[in-house]
Amino acid sequence: HTHTHTHTHTHTHTHTHTHTHTHTHTHTHTHTHTHTHTHTHTHTHTHTHTHTHTHTHTHTHTHTHTHTHTHT
Predict the structure, then answer these.
(1) What span, in angstroms and rounded, lies between the C-alpha atoms of 13 and 6?
(2) What is the mean pLDDT of the chain?
(3) How far apart, in whole angstroms, are the C-alpha atoms of residue 55 and residue 60?
């Protein structure tokens, strides 16, 4: 009598990495006008850019074990 047993084990690992990059740019403009009196106007503009990058890594490991037992 021969008995064969097969066992399969699958392991899946998923890793997700998220990277966020924010860039801020500020621009200031000053304008001075003189006419009997002095008038100063300041304008500030701020621009923000956000970039998000997501990386997903999946690792799958499959292990198969076969055991054969022979009985006479």
Answers:
(1) 23
(2) 85
(3) 17
